[in-house]
């Protein structure tokens, strides 16, 4: 699957309500960890096809399948923010754990078949009986089988909104309020059969991804309808059947800010640009500047354990000196204003008198009962010659 980042043409966006062309994103470069060789397969019984694998952030698309199927073959899941995560199945007590997901009938088509007595000739049918059978038609997996990432189904929807009572359809990833860092690849996944044209019942053949800036005031953040000032990224039209798309946020999209609030949306080809609303089924995200690659120090780990991020600690460190200066200034003026009222002599004398106070008479104290009194001149330190202390 080729991943590219292109804005729709100026002519097209000039007729889209609420859209504003900001700039043209650069072509996204596919990251490959190792060279994948093309391979040949036969599709639809007779047609030959050369398949070229593509590696995106360590995930290989269109890889040549193993000669024999293996229940323990690793598969790729997606974390809440859309980051890929390899799952390795294992066998415990004779049962397979963490096996590939079962999609049930989500990608099958329901159909009805009618049989007459002549068709079945069942021994328990009357000649005039008709048997109606419900069944499912399997999806054509010629190309979906080459996608190693788990597919999005309604079972993996989440709830969004303030009360968490709004379905995330058609999205499985990313979750609402996820953090997307610049320079990191994330996978958007959606339930492909959600986009069914209500007029003809057909599933959308092509879709495209939009990312738009969200403008909201701090006072009503999260409480009122957001305004969409402009769509800054629009992908090319792609096959809806893929149900997954890789995006690597770019620094230019932040427009000099550290963080921007954005809404992610998917437009099916049967909805025109004028009728499409990014907020109707969009999901809100935080796009932030990625951190620099550096070795984490012990102090940084301690701050992380305490729940303080680098940015928070930076602002705290800047704020502390200013707060200290303000406190000292207030204290200085308070003391100057009350300098004539700072007489604590009565309190000091009272405290000293308490320390000097002796309860009872010395003669009655057990320690001094048997002690014989002496005149001052009889004391050892008295100097008889001079009549004073030495």
TrEMBL record:
Keywords: Membrane, Signal, Transmembrane, Transmembrane helix. The chain crosses the membrane at residues 313-335. It holds the Pfam family Psg1. Residues 1-18 form the signal peptide. It comes from the Eukaryota. This is YKL077W-like protein. The lineage of its organism: Eukaryota, Fungi, Dikarya, Ascomycota, Saccharomycotina.
């Amino acid at each position: 699957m080729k991943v590219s980042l292109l804005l729709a043409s100026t002519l097209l966006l000039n007729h889209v309500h609420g859209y504003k062309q900001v700039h043209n994103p650069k072509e996204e470069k596919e990251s490959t960890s190792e060279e994948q060789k093309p391979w040949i397969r036969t599709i639809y019984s007779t047609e030959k096809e050369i398949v070229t694998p593509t590696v995106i952030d360590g995930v290989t698309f269109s890889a040549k399948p193993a000669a024999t199927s293996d229940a323990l073959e690793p598969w790729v899941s997606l974390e809440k923010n859309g980051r890929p995560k390899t799952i390795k199945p294992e066998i415990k007590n004779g049962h397979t754990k963490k096996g590939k997901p079962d999609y049930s009938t989500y990608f099958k088509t329901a159909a009805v078949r009618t049989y007459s007595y002549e068709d079945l000739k069942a021994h328990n049918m009357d000649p005039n009986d008709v048997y109606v059978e419900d069944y499912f038609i399997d999806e054509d997996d010629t190309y979906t089988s080459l996608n190693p990432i788990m597919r999005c189904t309604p079972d993996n929807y989440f709830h969004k909104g303030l009360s968490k009572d709004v379905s995330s359809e058609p999205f499985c990833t990313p979750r609402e309020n996820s953090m997307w860092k610049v320079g990191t690849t994330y996978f958007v996944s959606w339930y492909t059969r959600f986009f069914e044209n209500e007029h003809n019942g057909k599933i959308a053949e092509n879709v495209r991804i939009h990312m738009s800036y969200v403008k909201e005031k701090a006072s009503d953040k999260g409480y009122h309808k957001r305004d969409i000032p402009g769509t800054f990224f629009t992908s090319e039209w792609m096959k809806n059947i893929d149900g997954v798309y890789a995006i690597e946020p770019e620094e230019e999209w932040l427009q000099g800010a550290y963080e921007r609030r954005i809404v992610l949306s998917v437009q099916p080809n049967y909805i025109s640009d004028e009728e499409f609303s990014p907020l109707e089924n969009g999901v809100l995200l935080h796009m932030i500047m990625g951190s620099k690659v550096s070795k984490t120090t012990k102090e940084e780990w301690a701050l992380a354990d305490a729940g303080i991020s680098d940015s928070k600690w930076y602002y705290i460190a800047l704020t502390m000196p200013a707060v200290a200066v303000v406190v000292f200034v207030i204290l200085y003026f308070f003391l100057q204003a009350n300098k004539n009222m700072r007489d604590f002599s009565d309190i000091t004398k009272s405290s000293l008198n308490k320390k000097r106070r002796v309860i009872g008479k010395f003669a009655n104290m057990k320690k001094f009962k048997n002690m014989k009194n002496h005149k001052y001149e009889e004391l050892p330190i008295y100097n008889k010659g001079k009549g004073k202390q030495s």
